[in-house]
């Protein structure tokens, strides 16, 4: 039995989810002769000890102690502002790193991190979990197989049921950086094309504190790709019907909708139509439960040398570049060109 030891930094909401998914990996990997062991740390020591005890994991008192304990990989699930420092620490330890998106608060802060990783030949996977969602995978396959023809329109939607705490929003970088960056990433990944221009508008009709924190609660971006194709990316913090993530791809031959199932958070106004009939998802964790598990399994496969990196830091920064442009357009009210090269 081969042990793979993962260290986890941060056991907030998403960190606990990753910890549970890491623990569950053994159900899949044990038959392959692989056992995954978890060690974790967090500045909220009492909470972290409780999480560790519940999962049969080891608690370590600091990041330094965690890295010195002999890890095969490091998982970073802390606040965005800490990502650059922790990525560098993992790279310096000579182990593969998984870090939740984004690499840094903005592209300017991310550039030196990319240089650091490249100079030291580090291996870093960034967490864009939609790349592992069955619907997005099928849409990408269908497009690449030519089943949709050429794409004439794309409509991406990400709607949270309720907003996160205002304290989080004040440091999130804005709705496009925090939320729509997932859509920007998946549009690039699915089409294989770059977004070269963004024109954004937003509104604030919910909690006034969101506006006071410098953010909007609802926004729409018109994006233009390098071949002239257009699309829209919309997001809101106030979708009372439930958590709603969809992508409509309309092609010259056929159209597909990702996220259209019995749990879709919408209703038909047409007489006699009862679809969708299920209970909508309430949070992103429910909507992408399977994708998050697959994402962490992919990280273990990356550690073992069984697969290529499914989301490089360069990929993530390219999506963040579009998000930065969208935030700039939102603030200025004019379209903003997006530099394609992650080195620019």
UniProtKB/TrEMBL annotation:
<keyword id="KW-0520">NAD</keyword>
<dbReference type="InterPro" id="IPR055170">
    <property type="entry name" value="GFO_IDH_MocA-like_dom"/>
</dbReference>
<dbReference type="InterPro" id="IPR000683">
    <property type="entry name" value="Gfo/Idh/MocA-like_OxRdtase_N"/>
</dbReference>
<dbReference type="Pfam" id="PF22725">
    <property type="entry name" value="GFO_IDH_MocA_C3"/>
</dbReference>
<dbReference type="Pfam" id="PF01408">
    <property type="entry name" value="GFO_IDH_MocA"/>
</dbReference>
<feature type="domain" description="GFO/IDH/MocA-like oxidoreductase">
    <location>
        <begin position="136"/>
        <end position="256"/>
    </location>
</feature>
<dbReference type="InterPro" id="IPR036291">
    <property type="entry name" value="NAD(P)-bd_dom_sf"/>
</dbReference>
<comment type="similarity">
    <text>Belongs to the Gfo/Idh/MocA family.</text>
</comment>
<dbReference type="GO" id="GO:0016491">
    <property type="term" value="F:oxidoreductase activity"/>
</dbReference>
<dbReference type="GO" id="GO:0000166">
    <property type="term" value="F:nucleotide binding"/>
</dbReference>
<keyword id="KW-0560">Oxidoreductase</keyword>
<protein>
    <submittedName>
        <fullName>Myo-inositol 2-dehydrogenase/D-chiro-inositol 1-dehydrogenase</fullName>
    </submittedName>
</protein>
<feature type="domain" description="Gfo/Idh/MocA-like oxidoreductase N-terminal">
    <location>
        <begin position="7"/>
        <end position="128"/>
    </location>
</feature>
